[in-house]
Amino acid sequence: MRIEVMRAFMFVTVAIAASPVDAAPATPEAFEACKARSRALAAEAMKIPDLQERGERLRTMPRCEHGADGTLQVIEPPPPPPVDTTPFAPHLELAARAGMATSLLLSGTLDASGVGPYVEVEAGYRIRRRFGVAAFAGYTNFHDGEIFDAVTRQMYDVREQSYNAGALLNLHYASAFFGFGIGFDYERYGSGFATTAPMFRLHAGYTFAKARGVQAQVLAVLSDVSTPYDLTGSPGSKDDLLCVRLAVGLVL
């Protein structure tokens, strides 16, 4: 307890000493009132458990000084910084991200999985402080060269590429954000088979403070693409492509 009090007072002393203030001679009555107000603020501040909040409260204490020549001074603390009341302004946001993706292809005949690169660009419009819409386009791929078909007793080499695009709804809370999106995914396989299917995704991320006009960002995405074909192109068998993507990027 004593250490926390000393730290709080040191915080206040440094903050006040570094602030320009105007001092004028005070009457004995004003000096006594200053001391009484300081004691009351100190007692109130010691009841605040958070050290930073306690220091902010102590920072509002006046300084009651008794000079060597007998003069009395009451030095008021500097005023708090003005509160930013600038209203939120709707604005455009551009983002570019890159990372890795883990894909799992659940086919009616064979299953395949692999890890590959992931890139994505996004253009959005922040309508409100906690609400925004965006359009995105991305690419990922994976390779699984050891797929064994127990029926035909053959090995398959699966190479898959996904090109996707769609629309997003983003909800923001402080620096964190999350949302969902819908779009289309164009899947192309090494065998030459290709298909386009609807895609659904969930995402969450965190945007760091702006530095030199840009913001760093991390993003996690879970997506699912379902087609009425399996990876060999045969109809009548559902094919699900699940993908988990992790990326870092920059936001303008």
Report on this structure:
The strands form 2 sheets. Strands 3-4-5-6-7-8-9-10 form an 8-stranded antiparallel β-barrel. Helix 1 packs across helix 3 and helix 2 packs antiparallel against helix 3. It is α+β, with helices and mostly antiparallel strands and 252 residues long. It folds into 2 domains: 63 residues, no CATH class; 161 residues, Porin, CATH 2.40.160.20.
Summary keywords:
disordered N terminus; alpha+beta; Porin; 252 residues; eight-stranded antiparallel β-barrel
Outline, from the CA principal axes?
A: rod-shaped
What is the name of the CATH topology of the largest domain? Porin
Strand content: over 45%
Q: List the quaternary state of the chains.
A: single chain
Uncertain regions: pLDDT < 50 for 5+ in a row?
A: 1-22
Largest sheet: 8 strands, antiparallel, barrel
Number of strands: 10
Summarize the amount of helix as a percent range.
10-25%
Q: How many domains?
A: 2
**What is the string of helix and strand elements?**
HHHEEEEEEEEEE
Mean pLDDT: 83
- What is the helix tally? 3
Ends distance: 46 Å
How do the strands and helices of this protein lay out in sequence?
Layout: H1 2-17, H2 28-45, H3 51-58, E1 63-66, E2 72-75, E3 91-106, E4 111-128, E5 131-149, E6 154-173, E7 176-189, E8 194-207, E9 215-229, E10 235-251
Antiparallel strand pairs: 1-2, 3-4, 3-10, 4-5, 5-6, 6-7, 7-8, 8-9, 9-10
Brief rundown of the structure:
The chain is an alpha+beta fold and 252 residues long.
